[in-house]
Specification:
Shape of chain B: globular
Largest sheet of chain B: 6 strands, mixed
Number of helices of chain A: 10
Largest sheet of chain A: 2 strands, antiparallel
Structural class of chain A: mainly alpha
CATH architecture of chain B: 3-Layer(aba) Sandwich
Radius of gyration of chain B: 17 Å
CATH topology of chain B: Rossmann fold
CATH superfamily of chain B: P-loop containing nucleotide triphosphate hydrolases
Largest interface: A-B, 19 and 23 residues
Order of helices and strands of chain B: EEEHEEHEHHHHEHEHEEH
Helix content of chain A: over 70%
Number of helices of chain B: 9
Oligomer: heterodimer
CATH class of chain B: Alpha Beta
Strand content of chain B: 25-35%
Strand content of chain A: under 5%
Helix content of chain B: 25-40%
Shape of chain A: globular
Distance between the termini of chain A: 51 Å
Number of domains of chain B: 1
Radius of gyration of chain A: 19 Å
Number of strands of chain A: 4
Bound molecules: adenosine-5'-triphosphate, magnesium ion
Strand order of the largest sheet of chain A: 1-2
Strand order of the largest sheet of chain B: 6-7-8-3-9-10
Chain lengths: 295, 238
């Protein structure tokens, strides 16, 4: 049996794969958080809860309406996106002028409301969601056994992340978004409907969380608290990557997933705190984050 | 060119503007005829920028009447005001660092037919064409000013608000901006210009309004500028 630094190669590649999958979720979630913070100045604590709502929407669509995974992949992000736009219009837009803390508190409160609603109706334990038939099974790649669904998750989230990057960094619409992040008043003085753009940006950001939720449903169980465990790590990712950098969020998300996987192999006791240690180091050495612009 | 209020492109009556508790513009009234170049002159802090920002609705509070081609702007949502045909070149230029030159140039949406084509804009400001993919804020000050002006020429806006376009620029660049303003006037643009340099203003403008501590205290047609030199120097504290 091959070993690398005294660790069986199979175990190493297995953990790296797991890290890659976790990293894919970190990337999709931190991307949305970063875009939202850049444009709205809101620390969107409810992001994890909306990821959970995405997963529950998929579960409810399957259970009550018989709509398959593929339908949910399209519809659940739309549902979450629309819910997000309602949240933005009803609550968040009143907070842009005041301190960031108010946005954080409000979205934290919304998280508690959403989680309690689902816990009240569905209990705290996880509900299973089946892997769609087309994505069952797996392949032995020699160095690692790759379940098809997990490969799909990694490929899909990479595609979504880079699609979002392209949308923001390379298209006309994205240039409005970047400009409004820098100076919303001037963009409005050119005749662009900034309030609508802000609502759409928030909707897009949380729709990504909803999509991640659907993709997560067959891997992790669908439960009311599935988002709160994740969102703390994702905030660490955003801090490490640097707020406002799209590519930074993607790369950092994936790298930190891998880092976590590696720690599990070489020093399992530290695996839960590895990301936070990385965060502390980055904050000391480069406070604006690895990819962030220095203020 | 004589001014007839009936042909006014922009007509402002009894405008009052506030930043929180501080009352900055006091019953300001003036108008700009179609095709005219009109300046607002005044010392630092007189309220020239505030007047421009009030037209666009980007001051915290304003009241009074601002009409563009007869249509009242006070009360409209902010993003709709420029869509009626106003292009804004802010004092701080407002070039976006996260956009390259061409993205900056294409940012303001087309609001009407009849704006300038990109080729015509590049003919006016050749430097911009050469630096199309440069990050906006890496341009020199003069180039940033040209970009800020160029940006509003494509949109079809007929009224251009130019806030201190020559501030801090080298004389050769100032000449280029002067030429650009003349060209725009010949093309039929209406221009409201804020200037510190009264020499520059006298070369391009038809009329001048004098602002003092938020009040319009005088209006001087460009032809009478020479004879009113003494009083003007007193207004501007030269
Ligand atoms: N954001 C603001 N908040 C509070 N007061 C302001 C603000 N902006 C301007 N003022 C005040 O309003 C008055 C008019 O300012 P404004 O910028 O309109 O002057 P200006 O004529 O454009 O001056 P300058 O020639 O220096 O550009 C000044 O007294 C200024 O201190
Ligand atoms: Mg000013």
């Amino acid at each position: 049996m091959t070993t690398i630094l005294g660790v069986p190669a199979q175990a190493l590649s297995g953990q790296l794969l797991l890290g890659l999958i976790n990293g894919s979720f970190y990337a999709m979630l931190s991307l949305g958080l970063s875009v939202i913070f850049g444009m709205l100045g809101i620390v969107n604590m409810v992001h994890g809860a909306l990821y959970m709502v995405g997963a529950f929407t998929a579960w409810m669509m399957l259970t009550y309406l018989g709509i398959s995974y593929w339908g949910a992949l399209l519809i659940a992000p739309l549902v979450v996106g629309v819910l997000g736009m309602v949240i933005e219009r009803v609550f968040l837009r009143y907070l842009y002028e005041v301190d960031h803390l108010y946005g954080l508190l409000l979205t934290f409160g919304l998280t508690l409301v959403l989680e309690s609603m689902f816990r009240y109706n569905y209990g705290a334990s996880g509900l299973p969601y089946p892997i769609p038939a087309a994505l069952r099974g797996g392949n032995d790649l020699g160095f690692v056994y790759l379940p098809t669904y997990r490969g799909w998750v990694v490929a899909m989230s990479l595609a979504v992340c880079f699609g979002t990057w392209y949308l923001i960094e390379r298209t006309r619409l994205g240039s409005y978004l970047r400009a409004a992040t820098e100076n919303a008043i001037l963009v409005e003085a050119f005749g662009i409907n900034v309030p609508r753009m802000i609502a759409l940006t928030y909707g897009l950001g949380v729709a990504l969380a909803g999509l991640a939720g659907v993709m997560a449903a067959p891997i992790y169980q669908v439960s009311p608290t599935m988002g709160s465990n994740l969102v703390i790590v994702v905030f660490a990712v955003v801090v490490i990557g640097g707020l406002g950098s799209i590519m930074g969020s993607i790369v950092t998300g994936i790298c930190l997933g891998l880092l976590e996987g590696l720690t599990k192999v070489f020093y399992p006791a530290a695996s839960n705190v590895a990301i936070f240690i990385a965060m502390a180091i980055v904050l000391i050495v480069k406070p604006a984050g690895l990819f962030g612009r220095e203020p | 060119m004589t001014d007839t209020a009936s042909a006014a492109m922009l007509e402002i009556n009894d405008l009052n503007s506030f930043y929180g508790e501080s009352h900055v513009l006091h019953n300001v009234s003036f108008h700009v005829g179609r095709g005219e170049v009109v300046t607002l002159l005044g010392r630092n802090g007189a309220g020239k920028t505030t007047a421009m920002r009030s037209i666009l609705g980007i001051v915290p509070k304003r009241c009074g009447s601002i009409r563009l081609c007869g249509k009242e702007l006070v009360g409209l949502p902010r993003y709709q005001i420029p869509r009626l045909g106003i292009g804004y070149v802010p004092e701080e230029r407002g070039i976006f660092a996260s956009l390259n030159v061409i993205e900056n140039l294409l940012l303001p949406p087309i609001i009407k037919k009849g704006g300038m084509e990109l080729e015509q804009i590049f003919a006016l400001f050749p430097n911009l064409n050469e630096r199309a993919s440069t990050q906006g804020t890496r341009l020199s000050g003069g180039e940033q000013q040209m970009l800020a002006i160029a940006r509003v020429l494509r949109t079809g806006a007929e009224l251009i608000l130019l806030d201190e376009p020559t501030e801090g620029l080298a004389p050769v660049i100032v000449d280029q901006i002067e030429l650009a303003i003349r060209t725009l006037k010949d093309r039929g643009f209406t221009i409201l210009l804020v200037e510190q340099s009264f020499r520059f203003a006298s070369k391009v403008a038809d009329r001048h309004y004098i602002l003092e501590e938020g009040h319009v205290v005088d209006m001087i047609p460009n032809a009478q500028l020479a004879s009113k030199r003494a009083i003007l120097n007193q207004y501007l504290g030269l």
